[in-house]
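B., you asked whether I could sanity-check this one before it goes into the benchmark set. Here's the sequence:
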Amino acid sequence: MVLSAKQMQSIADEIGETINRNVNIMNEEGYIIASTDVSRIGMLHKGAKKIIEEKLDVEIISREDSDLETRAGVNYPLMVNGQLAGVVGITGDYEEIGTLGKVIRKMTEILIMDRYRNNQKRIRENLRKNMAIEWLFGKDGESLKSSASILGIDVQLKRRIVVAEMLLPLEEKEGMEFQEQHEEMDRLLRQKFEDDSQQLVLSMGNREILFLKEGSSSLCEAPNYIPQLEKRFSCKLYTGIGIAGEGKEGLIRSYKTAEAACTLAKQLKGEHMIAYDDSDLRFLLGSIPGEKRKNYLEKIWGKAINYEERKEIVRCLKSYIRNEGSLTKTAEELYIHKNTLQYRLSKIKNITGYDPRKVNEVIYLNIAVLLEELTD
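And here's what the prediction gave me:
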C-alpha cells in the first residue's frame, strides 16, 4: 500500500495534537512523509529504515543515540492488511511514551485503514459513474466491458432507465442550497437503489438517472419514493420512466424514452411522473410547438368563452371520454342529472361545432382536452 503524504500529514497532526508530542510517519522506504515538525519531512529516518530492513517490532532510540537527523523516541512498524505500510515514530523518552506508543501505533493503523477504505469507496463510486456515462453516451465498447467486469455488473440484464429532473425556485437555484440539496438527494437515491450492485445512480447537472433492474422491487418502489423526496426537499421532480432494454443499445433506447417521458412530465399540469408509452397520444402532441397548440385550442373553443367556462367544458369532456360515452357513469362521476349532462354536451357542440356524442367528431375534442393538459 502506498501511503498518501497528504492523508498521512492529516493523521500526524491529529495524533500529535491529541498527545502533545511530535509524530512522524515514514513510508516503506524509511523516508519521513508526514510530521508535526515539517522541517523533517523528506529526511531518511534511521530508526524506520532499521525496522524495515530487520523486520523489527519496535525500535527505541535513546538520547545517547540521537543526532540531528534521528531524535530520541519510539518507532513502530505500521501493518495494514498484513503488510508493512510504513513506520510511525513518537519523539520522547521511552520511559514516558513506551506504553502510549503501542496505542498510537494501533490508532495510526486504524486511521490509515479508514482512509484506505474511503479511498477505495471513492474509486469504486467514480468507476461506477464513468461506466454509467460510457454506457449511455460513450462509443468504447471495450471500456464498458472492462468496467463491468471489474464491478461485477451484468450489462445483459434487462433494465429500465428512470430520469428525474430537479427544479427549485430560481432564487434557491442560484444559491448553494440547490447544490447541497441535490447532493443529499443523490446520496439518498444511491442508498436506496444501489443496495443492489446491479443497479446504478448517475447524477448529471440537476438530473438523477437511475438504472433499475426490470422486475425488481426498486421499479415498484421508485414511483412512491420519488414523491417522498419532492416533499422532503420542497422541490419538483419531473420524472420519466423509459421502456425496458438490455445491453448497450437497449439501455440507450430506454434512456431516450425516459427523457421523452420526463419532457412530457414537465409540460403536463399537475402530473410529475410519466411512464413512456408510444401509444400515448400526449407524446405526439407534446412535440407540437406551443404556438400551434394554442392556435388549435382557439379554433376549437373559440375566443368568446372565458376561463371558467373552458375549465368546465374540459372537465365534462374528460369524464365523458374516460367513461367511453356512458351517460350514466359520466353523470354519476360529475354528480349531475343525465338531462343536465345532455344539456352540457349540446352546449359543447354549439360552442365548438363538434358533437362529443359522435365518434368521428369527439376525436377533435379529445385532442383539445389532451392539449389543455400541456403547459406552454
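One thing to flag: Residues 46 and 313 are 91 Å apart (CA to CA). Otherwise nothing jumped out at me.
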